[in-house]
């Protein structure tokens, strides 16, 4: 697996129907290995509303800590 639960990731594409833009940052809350590798990512907006979406590994990238 490329990522682990609680990794901070950035989206690599827009998902307009869900209100997610390329570059939005979220946290992986579940890592799936079967039937395929995928990750449930939670996003929190400025009003503290959260949403969870599932991404394939090539649709997200890890945010490196500085």
Task: Outline the fold blueprint.
Elements: E1 8-11, E2 25-32, E3 38-44, E4 50-55, E5 60-62
Antiparallel strand pairs: 1-2, 1-5, 2-3, 3-4
Q: What does this 3D model show about the protein?
A:
The protein is mostly beta strands. It has one domain. Helix content is 0%, strand content 42%. It has strands spanning 8-11, 25-32, 38-44, 50-55, 60-62. A 5-stranded antiparallel β-sheet has the order 4-3-2-1-5, with no helix packed on it. It starts with 7 loop residues before the first strand and ends with a strand. The model has no long low-confidence stretch (mean pLDDT 94).
The helical percent reads under 10%
The span between the termini is 23 Å
Order of strands, widest sheet: 4-3-2-1-5
What is the overall silhouette? Answer: globular
Give me the number of helical elements: 0
Domain count: the total is 1
Low-confidence stretches: none
Spell out the helices and strands N to C: EEEEE
Largest sheet data: 5 strands, antiparallel
Strand content: 35-45%
Structural class: mainly beta
Tell me the Rg in angstroms: 11 Å
Average pLDDT works out at 94
**Number of DSSP E strands:** 5
Q: Which features does this protein show?
A:
about 70 residues; mainly beta; five-stranded antiparallel beta sheet; about 40% strand; globular
């Amino acid at each position: 697996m490329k990522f682990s639960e609680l990794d901070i990731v950035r989206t690599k594409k827009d998902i307009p129907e869900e209100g997610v833009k390329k570059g939005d940052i979220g946290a992986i809350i579940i890592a799936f290995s079967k039937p395929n590798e995928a990750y449930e990512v939670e996003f929190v907006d400025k009003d503290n509303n959260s949403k969870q979406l599932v991404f394939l590994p090539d649709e997200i990238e890890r945010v490196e800590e500085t």
